[in-house]
Each structure stands twice: as C-alpha cells, then as structure tokens.
C-alpha cells in the first residue's frame, strides 16, 4: 500500500480505529520520520482523543483512558529501550488484556514478542511517500481487508 501524504497516514489510522478492540496490538515499524506516529495519531483521534497525541518517545508509555478515548489505549515508543528484558518493567503483558497497544519500534523486543500483532512496516520513498507492508495475524484476517482503500 502506498501512503502518498501525512494525511493518508492519518486516514489509515482512522480506518484502523473502526476495527480495533481491546487486546489488539498494532506494531508500527520503520525508520525515524517514516510516519509511525502519524498513523497512531489518526487512530487515537478517531477513538475520541481531542488534542494531538504527543510522541511517547520520552515517556515510553503514554496511556489514554475513557472518556478521553472509547477504551483504554497504550501508545508505546520503544526507541530508547536497550534490552527486551525491560518489557516486564513496562507492564505491557498485563495491559494487553484490556487495552489496545500501539507500539512504535516493536523490533526492540523482537518479532516473537509481538507474534499476534498487526505489524505495519513503513518505508519512505524518495518522493516523500511511504510504502506500507503488513504482516497480518490470524486475529486480523477478517478485519484487514476492510482497512484497504
């Protein structure tokens, strides 16, 4: 899928918001500036967040709870994580049962940790667009076709 502009990244996030539910994990992978946070912002806005979601780079985990959003969401940025063992300290396993996890830089914990995640990889092109590829787990097989434009 080609995302030609930041607005298209926001729109993809909004389409995801129509189908996500607590317990889902969306892994957003790609280099700095690839548009991971734009997708997360579009998703959070469509879930009801009125202000622009900050990048959680320094907080690492930015929680959102009702009534701010429809259901609990953790926006996670693992860029500054040094070792996968830090996952336990963040409490992500406990949160997965009742929250949506939006995870930027998921590769810091390794692909096996996110085996059930909808894994979206972004790659910038020379003209400023983004090529998005998706690894779709079983839980998303029926939902993913509804995301496509």
TrEMBL record:
Gene3D superfamilies recorded: P-loop containing nucleotide triphosphate hydrolases (3.40.50.300)
Keyword Protease part of the UniProt annotation: no
Subcellular location, record wording: Cytoplasm
Main location: cytoplasm
InterPro entries: P-loop_NTPase, T6A_TsaE
GO BP terms, alphabetized: tRNA threonylcarbamoyladenosine modification
Nucleotide-binding keyword on record: yes
Keywords attached to this entry: ATP-binding, Cytoplasm, Magnesium, Metal-binding, Nucleotide-binding, Transferase, tRNA processing
Signal peptide start and end residues: none
SUPFAM superfamilies: P-loop containing nucleoside triphosphate hydrolases
GO CC field: cytoplasm
GO MF, any single term: transferase activity
Record family assignment: Belongs to the TsaE family.
Protein name: tRNA threonylcarbamoyladenosine biosynthesis protein TsaE
Protein source organism: Sphingomonas gei
